Amino acid sequence: MIKTATAGMLLAATTLAQAAPATTVRVEGGRIEGRIEDGVRTFQGIPFAAAPVGALRWKAPQPVQRWQGVRKAQAFGNRCMQLPLFSDMVFRSPAVDEDCLYLNVWTPARAAKKLPVLVYFHGGGLAAGDGSEPRYDGAAMAKQGIVALTVNYRLGVFGFLAHPELTAEAPYKASGNYGLMDQAAALAWVKKNIAAFGGDPAQVTIAGESAGSFSVSAQMVMPMSRGLFARAIGESGAILGTRFVAPLADAERQGVQFAQAAGYATLQDLRTAPADALLQAQGKPGAPWFSIVQDGHVIDRAPAETFARGLQAKVPLLAGWNSQEQHAGAILGPLPPTAENFQAALAKLYGERAAAAAQAYGYDVADAARDLASDRWIAYGTWKWIALHAQAAPAWRYYYTRPRPATVDGKPADAGAVHSAEIEYAMANLDGNKVFRWTDEDRQVSRTMNAYFANFIKHGDPNGAGLPVWPKVTEPGANVMRLDVQSAAFDPQDRARYEFHDEEAKRPSAP
Predict the structure, then answer these.
(1) Is residue 447 situated within a structural domain?
(2) What value does the mean pLDDT of the chain take?
(3) Structure-derived torsion over alpha carbons of residues 123, 129, 135, 136, reported in degrees to the nearest 10
(4) Which ranges carry the Carboxylesterase type B domain (predicted)?
(5) φ/ψ of residue 288, rounded to 5
(6) What is the pLDDT at residue 2?
């Protein structure tokens, strides 16, 4: 009897051990140990590439260095080098450091296989941000059967400096775009390792907001990223606007000017400079804002040409923007929204084409100035991205209009949905933002938007039971989803605005 009981206990223990969620998994580099909390397995601070320091500063990401034993993956890694630029950023990472190429994984606690995967790229103008920010937290997605990741990538001068000496030393004879290559390296890591967390490498959705959305559109044209993702989500931003991708020669000149102004004569001087000194030089008045480069390698041709020729990754796309990406003051300055002031602003911006602009924006001045400011900055490029991609693959467009509510300290609600307002709603992370006094209506909007996103991540189509039908943008009539308390498809009747900007983009001196 004793032997039988002992055998039974051992069998039961073995069965429990096999059924228990694995907090230790093997990935490239070695074994890592995460933790389980509230039904979610979380792994934080996983290195996906070698630290880009010393001789690896301004080089393509290199393979991760192996480690011995089991590495704790229970705290976020460093955020990439950045200045404190945006007041709405809340970090859970320990420090700013060049050693920052880490990613984080949230996956359901109970063992499962072949789950859809979400890889989210943070925003911040390619100069700030971090995968540790609570608004991007992947736990809520994991509870819906999605393996969610956030990814760090090099920023600012460390991520996007182009320079003739860097171009000369690179085997591919180009420079810049190191941050985009970091993202591609993270996607390659996901392809090789995500099955260990229950994810399906054939069902990867890339997503991001603002600079993260720019990054998603960039990954869609990058040869090195082909086959690494199956779906794409873009929130407010794309590289198809007129001002966001510089030719390599222009970016190299900008890099030389930056180096000279900072007192560094050679690439060796730049490489040996303290990271903080470069960061402070980047923050000085007159210093450039480093961004994406059409380098002939990472971005091999003008992105608009790639999409127009149907050479991009032909994956389902869900994308859109918010109702108040910019304020009317970006067009009118301190002046009141009168017809005279608007006409004067159009004349200054567009010269002989002011009349065409007035016709395209011929409605309430306050609304027209707000829309023009938003279009010039971010909405036109996002529209162009969706419109061109829809010719090659399924695409769904949204227009997000829910203003965030009053703050807990009494500041009134915004007039419209400002830039980045939708992130917490889409990711079901309202409770992670302690600034606002969230209401039942906000939670309703979050449930709707998050359901659309989750459906798209799982099936490549946002539609699902209990949701208003969301037509593809190629379907005639009301085919843009207005996301608000009462979400519904509508016809924004905005084509004239974007056709005006299409014509502007053809002009050599497009503003």
Answers:
(1) yes
(2) 95
(3) 70
(4) 23-488
(5) -75, 160
(6) 42
Q: Are the beta carbons of 251 and 162 closer than 8 angstroms? A: yes
- Please write down the long-range contacts of 407-416, taking CB distance under 8 Å and 24 or more positions apart: 407/435, 407/436, 407/437, 408/434, 408/435, 408/436, 408/437, 414/324, 415/324, 416/322, 416/323, 416/324, 416/370
Nearest to 32 by CA among 86, 75, 69: 69
The count of other CB atoms within 10 Å of the CB of residue 165 is 18
Enclosing domain of residue 141: 20-315
The amino acid that residue 106 corresponds to is: W
Residue 320, strand partner residues: 235, 398
Dihedral sign from CA coordinates of 438, 443, 444, 445: positive
Do 346 and 197 reside in the same domain of the chain?
Answer: no
Which residue among 286, 315, 344 closes a domain? 315
Residues identified as active-site: 210, 325, 419
Map residue 449 onto helix, strand or coil: helix
Q: How confident is the model at residue 16 (pLDDT cuts 50, 70, 90)?
A: very low
Beta bridge partners of 448: none
Q: What is the pTM of this model?
A: 0.95
Distance CA 352, CA 354 (A): 6
- Picking from 315, 345, 360, the residue at the C-terminal end of a domain is 315
